[in-house]
């Protein structure tokens, strides 16, 4: 009885239509509403959030040792064991527990992917906007440099940069970011060129706005969508590249449990103990597909 | 004597065409080629002509949205073309522009309030945020929008309402001159009338001066005091609205006016059909630019460029025309080389001959 009354009450007073809606909040609601209709995207988002917390847990675990496991400690007595109740993902050729290595290595792999992408966006977006907005000789110089970067395949360029700078987590991040620069700069330049010729930009120029204001308040908000799309897409690529570079031995140095490096370690024992490569590999793919 | 608010002298606007291996400038589009006119304070001057004749370019050059190639633009006694960027910024509030496309002229990411507030902030109008907000409400009411629509985004408005927002933005900085670049062309006819009447009302109340760029002669007749007719980057005729509509002197103006539809099905229209297309402004014809399409053209027209001057002393003193034969055509001395009113039939006949 009371249920019916309650539902009636809800129909009569629709809080959304009466309350003054903050435009930003409304936009977020629209966005979430659309996202909810896309089941695959929603699942991806939730898994990604869970993965994010797991990786933070893994990172804190390496510092504070909640689980009391040192994933770098070798135990040759237990080497190359199959997955069991004791070692969920089995052990590798040095008897290290793969489950904990995957857990502890997660923040490195994901961290490199995200950091590299944001570095590329932070440098690439301004380059693209400047090049598109001012045009002329500035445009030519920036875009020719980007063309040079674009001429090399991403992984090859990253290889070259890492071999010059030396292999470390930080250098891998830089290398991947540089490889991604032209992609960002080109997309942003294109969008800027379209946007800057629209009449509202002329209108604001006629009002006497300065270039900085035009760029930050009028061009940037209107080219956000391609930037966001490109950023999200590139995070997946960056994670794979990071793992790839480590696999080639140029990224994160052993014994740090980075997924790519773990793959490389397990490679020699693939026929005897396939599980060593299985878990890092599929976790890697799994993360990327979620993104 | 009324005060000249805008005085344009010998204005040229050439756009470079880049080409070749090193992107050198190979040629120029002569969008506006040496035009001079003035606009008095409180007056509405319409610039008419077909698309591509340089009407909009003139408006943009006056505002220095594109840097003019040559010539002088004197606004309220100040030489606009000589101003530095920051000096120009200060004078920007005096002249504003209303654009053609109400869908492209408002930033889709800003609410109406943000758009208007920003305009005032740039020109430092109003002392506090509160004062500006009050002015936003006042402006919205002036252009016929409601105050509760203040926090809406442009996509929530109709075309006519958006154009009103555009007008409110232009008014927000208290301008003297408003350049209306095809301001009503994108609206449907009933809304056009509303917006035009609003503009007229605002002109009376705020003593505005309009430079009204349009291709719609019906609209122009309704709103303007004087008309400038342009063809291929040149002024061909200039005069008071009444005089232009009643006694057009240039063959191009006559053709243009004959194209206005008459809302009477029984009345036989005496439309003048021009032959051919508008020539390219990259390489305009020598002499009179209209000679390639003019039924009255002679060798003189092909070699010598006519000057814009007052020809017929009997008609209004402001009426100037750039045609060698304006007077002779008027008196019936100079006849057309071919029949102008049945061009369609002639073309059909020619097609038949070609097919046969």
Write the layout of secondary structure elements.
The complex is a heterodimer of chains A (291) and B (356).
Chain A: H1 2-12, H2 15-18, H3 23-37, H4 39-64, H5 98-134, H6 136-151, H7 154-165, H8 169-196, H9 199-206, H10 211-219, H11 224-247, H12 259-267, H13 275-290
Chain B: E1 4-19, E2 24-40, E3 44-48, H1 55-62, E4 70-75, E5 78-79, H2 85-91, E6 95-98, H3 112-122, H4 129-142, H5 159-171, E7 177-181, H6 189-206, E8 209-214, H7 217-223, E9 226-231, E10 234-240, H8 241-246, H9 251-258, H10 299-303, E11 320-321, H11 326-331, H12 343-355
Parallel strand pairs in B: 3-8, 3-9, 6-7, 7-8
Antiparallel strand pairs in B: 1-2, 1-4, 4-5, 9-10, 10-11
Helix pairs in contact in B: 3-4, 3-5, 5-6
Short structural summary:
Chain A has helices spanning 2-12, 15-18, 23-37, 39-64, 98-134, 136-151, 154-165, 169-196, 199-206, 211-219, 224-247, 259-267, 275-290.
Please give a structural write-up.
The complex is a heterodimer of chains A (291) and B (356). With 291 residues, chain A is mainly α. Chain A has helices at residues 2-12, 15-18, 23-37, 39-64, 98-134, 136-151, 154-165, 169-196, 199-206, 211-219, 224-247, 259-267, 275-290. Chain A is elongated, with a radius of gyration of 25 Å. Chain B is an alpha/beta fold and 356 residues long. In chain B, the strands form two sheets. Chain B has a seven-stranded mixed β-sheet, with helices on both faces. In chain B, strands 2-1-4-5 form a four-stranded antiparallel β-sheet. Chain B is globular. The model of chain B has no long low-confidence stretch (mean pLDDT 85). Chain A: Residues 106-291 form the ABC transmembrane type-1 domain. Chain A: Keywords: Cell membrane, Membrane, Transmembrane, Transmembrane helix, Transport. Chain A: The chain crosses the membrane at residues 40-60, 106-129, 141-164, 227-252. Chain A: It is found in: Cell membrane.
């Amino acid at each position: 009885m009371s249920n019916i009354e309650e539902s009636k009450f809800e129909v009569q007073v629709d809080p959304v239509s009466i309350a003054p809606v903050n435009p930003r909040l409304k936009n977020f609601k629209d966005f979430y509403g659309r996202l909810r209709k896309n089941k695959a995207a929603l699942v991806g988002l939730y898994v990604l959030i869970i993965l994010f917390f797991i990786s933070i847990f893994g990172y804190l675990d390496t510092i504070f040792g909640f689980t009391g496991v040192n994933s770098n400690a070798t135990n040759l007595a237990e080497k190359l064991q199959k997955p069991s109740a004791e070692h969920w993902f089995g052990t590798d050729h040095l008897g290290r527990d793969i489950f904990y290595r995957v857990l502890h290595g997660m923040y490195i792999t994901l961290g490199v992917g995200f950091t590299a992408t944001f570095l590329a966006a932070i440098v690439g977006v301004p380059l693209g906007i400047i090049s598109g907005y001012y045009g002329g000789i500035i445009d030519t110089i920036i875009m020719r440099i980007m063309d040079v970067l674009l001429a090399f395949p991403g992984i090859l360029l990253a290889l070259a940069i890492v071999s010059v700078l030396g292999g470390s987590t930080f250098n891998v991040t830089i290398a991947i970011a540089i490889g991604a620069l032209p992609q960002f700069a080109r997309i942003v330049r294109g969008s800027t060129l379209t946007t800057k010729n629209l009449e509202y930009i002329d209108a604001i120029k006629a009002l006497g706005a300065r270039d900085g204001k035009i760029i930050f308040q009028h061009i940037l908000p209107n080219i956000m969508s391609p930037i966001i799309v490109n950023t999200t897409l590139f995070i997946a690529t960056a994670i794979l590249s990071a793992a790839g570079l480590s696999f080639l031995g140029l990224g994160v140095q052993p014994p740090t449990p980075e997924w790519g490096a773990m793959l490389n370690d397990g490679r020699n024992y693939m026929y005897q103990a396939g599980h060593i490569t299985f878990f890092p590999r599929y976790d890697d793919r799994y993360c990327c597909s979620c993104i | 004597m009324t005060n000249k608010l805008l005085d344009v002298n010998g204005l040229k606007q050439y756009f470079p065409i880049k080409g070749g291996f090193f992107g050198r400038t190979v040629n120029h589009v002569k969008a506006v080629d040496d035009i001079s006119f003035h606009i008095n304070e409180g007056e509405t001057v319409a610039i008419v002509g077909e698309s591509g004749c340089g009407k909009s370019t003139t408006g943009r050059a006056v505002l220095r949205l594109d840097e003019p190639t040559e010539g002088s633009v004197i606004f309220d006694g100040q030489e606009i073309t000589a101003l530095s960027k920051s000096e120009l910024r200060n004078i920007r509030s005096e002249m504003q522009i209303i654009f053609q496309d109400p869908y492209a002229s408002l930033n889709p990411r800003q609410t109406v309030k943000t758009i208007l507030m920003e305009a005032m902030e740039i020109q430092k109008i109003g002392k506090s945020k509160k004062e500006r907000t009050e002015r936003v409400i006042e402006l919205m009411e002036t252009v016929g929008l409601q105050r509760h629509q203040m926090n809406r985004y442009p996509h929530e408005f109709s075309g006519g309402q958006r154009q009103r927002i555009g007008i409110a933005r232009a008014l927000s900085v208290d301008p003297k001159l408003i350049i209306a670049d095809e301001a009503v062309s994108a609206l449907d006819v009933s809304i056009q009338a509303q917006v035009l009447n609003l503009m007229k009302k605002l002109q009376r109340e705020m003593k505005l001066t309009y430079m009204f760029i349009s291709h719609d002669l019906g609209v122009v007749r309704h709103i303007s005091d004087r008309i400038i007719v342009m063809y291929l980057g040149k002024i061909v005729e200039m005069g008071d609205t009444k005089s232009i509509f009643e006694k057009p002197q240039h063959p191009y103006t006559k053709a243009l006016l004959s194209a206005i539809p008459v809302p009477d099905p029984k009345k036989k229209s005496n439309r003048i059909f021009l032959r051919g297309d508008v020539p390219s402004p990259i390489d305009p014809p020598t002499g009179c630019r209209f000679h390639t399409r003019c039924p009255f053209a002679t060798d003189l027209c092909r070699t010598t460029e006519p000057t814009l001057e007052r020809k017929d002393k009997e008609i209004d003193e402001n009426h100037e025309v750039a045609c060698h034969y304006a007077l002779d055509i008027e008196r019936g001395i100079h006849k057309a080389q071919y029949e102008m009113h049945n061009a369609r039939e002639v073309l059909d006949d020619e097609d038949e001959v070609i097919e046969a």
